[in-house]
Amino acid sequence: MAVRVVLPYHLKNLAATGAEVALEIDGPVTQRAVLDALEDAYPVLRGTIRDHATGARRPLLRFFACSQDVSHESPDAALPEAIASGDEPFLIIGAIAGG
Predict the structure, then answer these.
(1) How far is residue 68 CA from its own chain's centroid?
(2) Exposure of 68 by Cβ count < 10 A (0-12 exposed, 13-18 middle, 19+ buried)?
(3) Would the pLDDT of 63 be above 70?
(4) Which among 92, 67, 75, 97 has a CA at the least distance from the CA of 11?
(5) Would you state the pLDDT for residue 95?
(6) SS3 category, 48
(7) Are 61 and 94 in contact (CB under 8 A)?
(8) 0.90 cut: is pTM over it?
(9) Which three-class secondary structure state does DSSP give residue 24?
């Protein structure tokens, strides 16, 4: 299945790609499967979205699926069918921090 992923500005520049990429996923479409496929296609992104050692999401990134924040969901939970079918993109959003 082709899953669409929208990257924030800094990650699309690092990967030297457009803001949206299409990834082929074999098997269940989960956050882990999407991020694994993204890092396989763009190795320069390894460690920028998830910690190298723990695999945990980086604190200033959020994940959205069908307008829902799925950042704190299990990485192995199935994403909505609209994401799996490519009708809706999986969004990686850079959070804003400051005082």
Answers:
(1) 13
(2) exposed
(3) yes
(4) 92
(5) 79
(6) coil
(7) yes
(8) yes
(9) strand
